From TrEMBL:
Similarity comment: Belongs to the GMC oxidoreductase family.
Matching SUPFAM superfamilies: FAD/NAD(P)-binding domain
Keyword line: FAD, Flavoprotein
Organism: Tegillarca granosa (Malaysian cockle)
Name of this protein: Glucose-methanol-choline oxidoreductase N-terminal domain-containing protein
Cofactors, names only: FAD
Glucose-methanol-choline oxidoreductase N-terminal domain span: 83-97
Sequence intervals crossing the membrane: none
């Protein structure tokens, strides 16, 4: 939304176009799960829980699984990989984040960190076009190192 930008000039710095990189394997889009997680599923140091809501992370992870709280002990490390929105949320629920914000939310701050402060929405729209230009110029367009055009 335009109203979320300080002014219209600021908004134009975020407009443009670019080639979006995707992972393709055998003509199909490759997911992180298929590429990295599935090959590692047999490892003894990996546990994957689906439909689990992480409530807090430390050396003991508190999760809600099938409606019940459960505690899981980590021996070495915990990888927080819950996406753009939920990873900062988990860290903040665990007391890692902007101290003032955590206190406002009645969460005891453990580590004062700028978690989530640089987040902004990346609204995208797919637009396919057919260019009627020479082959030499097409190559220049698609091999450009500066893929994003700012208006």
């Amino acid at each position: 939304m335009i109203s979320s930008f300080h002014n219209i000039q600021t908004m134009y710095h975020f407009l443009g176009n670019c080639v979006t990189p995707v992972n393709i394997e055998s003509g199909k889009r490759e997911t992180s799960s298929r590429a990295f997680l599935r090959p590692a599923m047999g490892r003894s140091n990996l546990n994957v829980f689906t439909y689990a809501l992480v409530e807090k992370v430390a050396l003991v992870i508190k999760v809600r699984l099938n409606g019940k709280s459960r505690y899981i002990r980590a021996r070495q490390e915990v990888i927080v990989s819950a996406g753009t929105v939920h990873s900062p949320q988990i860290l903040m629920l665990s007391g890692i984040g902007p101290q003032r914000h955590l206190r406002d939310m009645k969460i005891k701050p453990i580590i004062d960190s700028p978690v989530g402060e640089t987040y902004f929405d990346h609204v995208a729209m797919r637009l396919e076009v057919q260019l009627n230009i020479s082959t030499r110029h097409q190559r220049d367009v698609f091999e450009s190192r500066n893929c994003c055009t700012i208006i």
